Amino acid sequence: MSSRLEQLTAQVLAEIESAGDEQALRQIEQTALARKGELMSLMRGIAELPPAERAGFGKAVNAARASLEQRLEQRREAFAGERVAAEVADERFDPSEPAMLPAVGHLHPITLVRREVEAIFMGLGFSVATGPEVETEEFNFDLLNIPRHHPARDLQDTMWLQSGQVMRTHTSPVQLRAMRAAGGVPPVRVIAPGRVFRNEQRDATHEHSFHQVEGLMVDEGVSVADLKGILATVLSRLFGGEVEVRLRPHYFPFVEPGFEMDMRRVDAGPDAEWLEALGCGMVHPEVLRNGGFDPERVSGFAFGMGLDRLAMMRHRIEDVRWMMSGDLRFLQQF
After folding, report:
1. Alpha helix locations (H) across 242-284?
2. Which of 79, 81, 70 is nearest to 21 (CA)?
3. Cα end-to-end span (Å), the chain
């Protein structure tokens, strides 16, 4: 058995020395040194030796295996060194060239705008509120002073569920829940960003699923001046420069009076085009009552603007359908 061990050790060592590449070393490792290899097969015959010789022979086998594995690893490192040297010598390889950066994800443009809007309003003392996307008719319409005959309730405008609930058409119900959570005690300053749904025919400017941020401020003595001042500040910070705003009368069932707010950059000059920015107004007394507040004691303003539209204005995106496309060619630009 001892002579067989010496013979096998010398044979494997010679094969390691003559191996031409790393693949040959792997083959030697599998056939000679692996658990079921030739060297370890000698251990299975140890029972045929006299008891006094078994321990010594086992140690000899393990020592031979360790020695061969050490030499095999040395040869493997030598091959690796030769391979690296050949790559460095290749004129097409430039070791000073920066490594390729790992692929990283991108925040969606709507997420970028939403986070920026949230940061601006939180800096002005507002908190961020959320609510369910599946709403009751009561919170989505009734408590917001939207009449039964209003066209917004029609099937062609609203996604009704078989349960009688709706996919929320705006985030105004979140504002109403925030008022009720306050228990009639002012102030209330919240914004409600989130996804909303309309039964729309998709085109470059319309989507059935899009994103809004709506806001509410309720306190004693809140006026249109507060509305205009706060929203002008927000728009100035969003667009990176002082903006001029104007209010145009507009009807919304949940505010009275209601306005459309237009804006233009001051540095663009007096002839710059006005851009429609958002809808807003003073909270309707009936909505204040439904939220648990006394309209004789407090007042408030509310507003709503599309996050998709803000992102499109910021990044000069011409088709809203890109927003929900999931197309990596679009998303990797941000």
Report:
1. none
2. 79
3. 71
Residues in the chain: 334
Q: Which residues contact 237 (CB under 8 A, 6 or more apart)?
A: 120
> Which residues touch 203 (CB under 8 Å, ≥6 apart)?
321
Query: Which ranges in the chain belong to alpha helices (H)?
Result: 2-18, 22-28, 38-41, 51-89, 109-123, 137-140, 172-182, 224-238, 285-290, 307-315, 328-331
Beta bridge partners of 203: 206
Q: Considering the chain, what is the average pLDDT of its residues? A: 86
Residue 66, CA distances (Å) to 9, 10, 40, 109 in order: 11, 14, 12, 59
Average pLDDT over residues 82-111: 79
Dump pLDDT digits (tens) for 156-215: 578 889 999 999 999 999 999 999 999 999 999 999 999 999 887 778 777 888 899 999
CA distance linking residue 209 with residue 120, whole number of Å = 25
248 phi/psi in degrees, rounded to 5: -115, 135
Which one has a higher pLDDT value, 11 or 252?
252
Cβ distance 128 to 189 under 8 Å? no
Lowest mean pLDDT among 48-52, 126-130, 233-237, 294-298: 48-52
- State the Cα torsion 123-126-128-130 to the nearest 10°: -160
CA neighbor of 227 nearest in space, from 240, 245, 212, 211: 245
CATH topology of domain 109-331: BirA Bifunctional Protein; domain 2 (3.30.930)
What separation in angstroms does the CA of 275 have from each of 129, 227, 240, 266? 28, 18, 16, 13
Q: What is the pLDDT of residues 210-241, one digit of tens each?
A: 899 999 999 999 999 999 999 999 999 998 88
Helix (H, G, I), strand (E, B) or coil at 44: helix
Contacts 24+ apart (CB under 8 A), 247-250: 247/280, 250/279, 250/281
